[in-house]
């Protein structure tokens, strides 16, 4: 039964990808295939859930969708002839002054400062959230790397050098100080 | 170009620059972790392939578990490592029984157990152990190794966030894969298609990897403030209360009776491992890790005291949200919740992740070439890393199989050699492809010829190695068959 349900779920995923591709090909009236594709995925999820339970069914739906989509895309690969590229001469590159200083500030901002700010928010959450100890800890634990990754990108993508790092430093100080006061 | 579109475009450009920066700084390390992680998913299978001579145990009944725990404790006591003893029972994926003994300082030793529960010397799978450690710590001493890997996981997460926001056409081009024309375009298509379709997998693996790597640091930081420095309280909130410290001597718990008691409480329960904490003291605790089908966490932990009195369950399957998420982290990261088929799916998606990283840097280098700022040495070094890693992992496995060299020195010697040679090598990519084909083929054939008994798992992995070698040979032949442009002022992209 489990094998049959799994096979049916994979078929549903394949149908969903096919319908999504049909929607992707169209310029207009995409709603119908999109809705049908979504429905096919919901059916696939229902089948995986029936076979393995909801907790396992959700990741299985996402992972099989990825594999089925890859297979579909590989089946439609467009082969092209190798292109001849003329070698170009490099334009004059104007390197920004104080590159190393800039790099160091970016590195500190995206590294320790962003980590401190993320950890500060995580600590504040772990200190104040009205949840069970384990839940506060784990959610704060998940929050810290997610926030660190986001703030890392914010610092690196920002045009201003000091502003993001200064803001993050402010967040770190405020959140940690608040957490310490609340914890007391 | 209308005025309101400008800030969005600038923002996208800045995001793309930050995405590139993350790739340039962390790309090589992320690639090493992704490649070894993809292979580490099937580490249990590699261990069976590497050491088919280890005793096979298909089922562990209560009596066998009792005997195994008692024998493991005797061995641990003889080795003066009797603070805690773990006995891993056979599972359908890993039909072996092992015992691990740890002293209070963390020194440890492990053994295999045979089908009668007797302790036998550990069938050490040196390459598999190397592979696991390579992914877990990059062989950097504790605790820094695991923190570095956690940091790399965070960088990967940052790369995923920025990639998702910076590549505005990833949804628009979701079904397009062009191959063979412009190298940059082909790589960009592959990079974006893998990036968009396997996005949930990438986020899950990067986030869980980042948390697993930084867990000890994060718990330490959170405990300092949120739990007023009480790290034990923080740890026991997640992993359950530790054994009560009472060092007065006590008899060894009757594990067989405890397992039978568990079977009465949950008929048909399959014990995956037995953990004896503060063993042979009055404060001792027995923890049974029991398979929990239908749950992502894979297992539930049942605790008993030394007299066999049931203390409670950890709650990995039905406890609070935090404990349940904690139980899901490792299965979600390593794909251990759905048998061998899911492991293969994780292997494919993990290799896809390695390709995502490899093509990311290739796009950057190709863009520089297109802009007339080609850096052939950097291109060669990146090719050396990307195409060199499969070779050095295979060389390490070959060294272990032939007992010629331990995997770690073999791995680093080959890696350093390739890194030194690659900036000056003419056709580094082709050379490494040939080397991969040769080493994969040699490893498959030698393993088939040298190791006994021939098992189904061993045969399957040997066949995959030979098929892989044949695939590389086909790829090399295909590349050789392509015509090269005779013009000196033009470069044919392949």
Descriptive overview:
The complex is a heterodimer of chains A (184) and B (494). Chain A has helices spanning 2-25, 31-52, 54-75, 99-128, 133-157, 162-183; strands at 78-79, 84-86. Chain A is mainly alpha-helical and 184 residues long. Chain A folds into two domains: 2-75; 99-183. In chain A, helix 1 (2-25) runs antiparallel to helix 2, helix 2 (31-52) crosses helix 3 (54-75) and helix 4 runs antiparallel to helix 5 (133-157). Chain A is flat and about 55 Å long. The mean pLDDT of chain A is 89. Chain B folds into three domains: 1-51 and 134-238 and 331-371, no CATH class; 54-123 and 241-313, no CATH class; 375-484 and 490-494, no CATH class. An eight-stranded antiparallel beta sheet of chain B has the order 4-3-2-1-6-7-8-9, covered by helices on one side. Chain B has helices at 5-40, 43-50, 62-78, 126-137, 144-166, 183-197, 199-226, 231-239, 255-265, 321-334, 339-370, 376-401, 407-421, 428-450, 456-481, and strands at residues 84-88, 97-102, 108-113, 119-121, 178-179, 271-277, 285-291, 299-305, 310-313, 490-492. Chain B is built from 15 helices and ten strands. The longest helix of chain B has 36 residues, at 5-40. In chain B, helix 1 packs across helix 5 (144-166) and helix 3 packs antiparallel against helix 9. Chains A and B meet through helix 1, helix 3, strand 1, strand 2 and helix 4 of A and helix 1, helix 5, strand 5, helix 6 and helix 7 of B.
